[in-house]
Amino acid sequence: MLDQLYAYFGTRDIPGEPEALARLAKRVAELAARNGEEWVWANREILLMQWRMALSHDTPRVAVAQGENKRDDGYC
Q: Domain range holding 42?
């Protein structure tokens, strides 16, 4: 599945842990089925930018879910 993702994006330089990349590959396959492989290729730079943004915004939620970044007053 990752090989197809790399083919769609034209690169193997995609950030993320293996589990996250598997989710991305599944989503991109869904987009290709819905919109066509040509659409994914034409929009690959936008999709990669959105993926990088999603990863950068996901980090704080993961930390809070793991009990990090707690305030002394009991609020996250």
A: 2-65
pLDDT in tens, 11-53: 999 999 999 999 999 999 999 999 999 999 999 999 999 999 9
The whole-model pTM stands at 0.72
d(CA 48, CA 67): 29
Helices (H) and strands (E) counted in the chain, each on its own, are 4, 0
| Long-range Cβ contacts of 1-8 (<8 Å, 24+ apart) | 1/25, 1/26, 1/29, 4/28, 4/29, 5/29, 8/32, 8/37, 8/40, 8/41, 8/44
Count the domains in the chain. Answer: 1
Is there a domain that residue 40 lies in? Answer: yes
Question: Looking at the domain assignment, is residue 10 inside a domain?
Answer: yes
Any domain includes 49: yes
